[in-house]
Design brief:
- GO terms for molecular function: identical protein binding; pyridoxal phosphate binding; transaminase activity.
- Pfam families: Aminotran_3.
- Keywords: Aminotransferase, Pyridoxal phosphate, Transferase.
- The protein has about 450 residues and is α/β, with parallel strands linked by helices.
- The protein has two domains: about 170 residues, Aspartate Aminotransferase, domain 1 (Alpha-Beta Complex); about 260 residues, 3-Layer(aba) Sandwich (Aspartate Aminotransferase, domain 2).
- The chain contains 13 helices and 17 strands.
- The strands form four sheets. A seven-stranded mixed beta sheet has the order 4-12-11-10-7-5-6, with helices on both faces.
- α3 packs antiparallel against α10 and α4 runs parallel beside α10.
Length: about 450
């Protein structure tokens, strides 16, 4: 590992301790699938800024659009007047929405802000207060979204009380339900929908419940896709009780799972959809979209924000949408996903390491690998007691040493793959080779 530079030491002294990071090295520049570090290393990036730089770092078309916009209008405040990039972005997004009824937008800056905007809209539109969230779900670290986030306690520890009116129900993930991995999906879904029904009978009455919010693929909760039957079940419950269904596509949207939005795989229509991350390929931009009849239930002036829907970020997002079409990004995701799953499934069958891999799951280029490392917690019920400890974090560290950034996720022992959506065949092979070597080495070390 390269020595810590003087600039990195400055960061260690003066950046808030509450901000964690994979490494204390300094990024100098990014190009495509690679990050170039101040210490001279060239790192293959299988994190893309946690799913933000979906089309790679400094995509020429997107960066040029932002640079050009900087020379004409940087800040066209949304409460003063319309600006052109904001309207052009809506024009580009409407054709790719998962349902034609999703036609009215509000743009903000971060994913957490957009989640809060969705909750604010749901409460205003329904006249009801409470929100139901999923166990394992992640929606942000602001004060409102901390109450909604149920993936790890670290995000809200030491700052209670949080926003009231939030109730959690199980998500159909075998490990989270305390059931064997062989449990049929239908049984998991039935169990979770039953618990939802109990929650509406015992904890928050339908007449008090404004919304159910769900990630079509759990992000921080372990990269677990929601079964189609579960999403369909949520839709039926919401229709029955006049509850709004919110799809949080902050991490799973914009091609990450091989569809523009992961909810498309189920055919389920959300009432409100939250978007961010891949929307502007690194420029701070988020948003919500809903039916006009729902959006119009908010009075003028109730929504806004100084930097909301920034002109430069919107211009980048317009270019991003155009690049998706011109470069046939979704086709590339399908091809590279097939290669990635092929390698990971092969490792699962490998006689030397496969028995330590509990699960390979995901869709497109949003893929998780769960290991069987024991940690002594109650959720280790189905882990292998003979497995090496903390496999995921040790493998991530070894990948870093070999020249690739790879993140872990959730309270379980999971690594997550979030490479660029336009990654080449050659770089995908390079990344999977590094991962395979790292798995074998760490397992041998015990």
């Amino acid at each position: 590992m390269a020595a810590v530079t003087q600039l990195a030491r400055y960061g260690e002294r003066h950046i808030a301790r509450g901000l964690n990071r994979l490494t204390n090295a300094v990024i100098k520049e990014g190009r495509g699938s690679y990050l170039h570090m101040e210490d001279g290393r060239k790192m293959l990036d299988f994190t893309t800024g946690i799913g933000v730089a979906g089309l790679g770092h400094c995509h020429p078309k997107i960066s040029k659009a932002a640079a050009d916009q900087c020379l004409s209008l940087v800040h066209g405040q949304c409460s003063i007047a319309y600006h052109e990039p904001y309207l052009k972005l809506i024009e580009r997004l409407i054709p790719v929405m998962p349902h034609p009824s999703l036609d009215t937008f509000f743009f903000w800056n971060s994913g957490a802000e957009a989640v809060e905007a969705s909750i604010k809209l749901a409460r205003a539109a329904t006249g009801k207060q409470n929100v139901i969230v999923m166990q394992g779900g992640y929606h942000g670290r602001t004060f409102g979204t901390m109450a909604l986030t149920k993936s790890k306690t670290v995000y809200s520890q030491d700052v209670f009380p949080l926003m009231p009116g939030v109730f959690s129900v199980p998500f159909p993930y075998w490990h989270q339900c305390g059931l064997p991995s062989s449990t049929p999906t239908s049984e998991l879904v039935q169990h979770c929908l039953f618990q939802l029904d109990l929650t509406l009978s015992q904890q928050t009455a339908p007449s008090d419940t404004a919304a159910i919010i769900v990630e079509p693929v759990l992000g921080e909760g372990g990269y677990v896709p929601a079964p189609t039957e579960f999403l369909q079940g949520l839709r039926k419950v919401c229709d029955k009780h006049e509850i709004l269904l919110i799809a949080d596509e902050v991490q799973s949207g914009f091609g990450r799972t091989g569809k523009y939005f992961a909810i498309e795989r189920s055919g389920v229509k959300p009432d409100i959809m939250v978007m961010a991350k891949g929307l502007a390929n690194g420029f701070p931009l988020s948003g919500i979209v809903s039916r006009k009849e729902i959006m119009d239930r908010q009075s003028p002036g109730t929504m806004g924000g100084t930097y909301a829907g920034n002109a430069v970020a919107c211009a980048a997002a317009v270019a991003c949408a155009e690049a998706f079409q011109e470069e046939k990004v979704l086709q590339n995701v399908e091809a590279r996903s097939h290669e990635l799953f092929g390698v990971l499934k092969g490792l699962q069958k490998d006689s030397q390491v496969g028995h330590h891999i509990l699960d390979v799951r995901g869709a497109g280029l949003m893929v998780g690998v769960e290991f069987g490392s024991p940690s002594g917690h109650a959720h280790d019920k189905f882990r292998r007691p003979d497995a090496p400890k903390t496999l995921a974090s040790r493998i991530s560290k070894r990948c870093l040493e070999k020249g690739m950034f790879l993140l872990t996720t959730s309270v379980f022992d999971v690594v997550r793959f979030i490479p660029p959506l336009n990654i080449t065949k050659e770089d995908m092979k390079k990344g999977t080779d590094i991962f395979s070597e790292s798995v074998h080495e760490i397992v041998r070390e015990g």
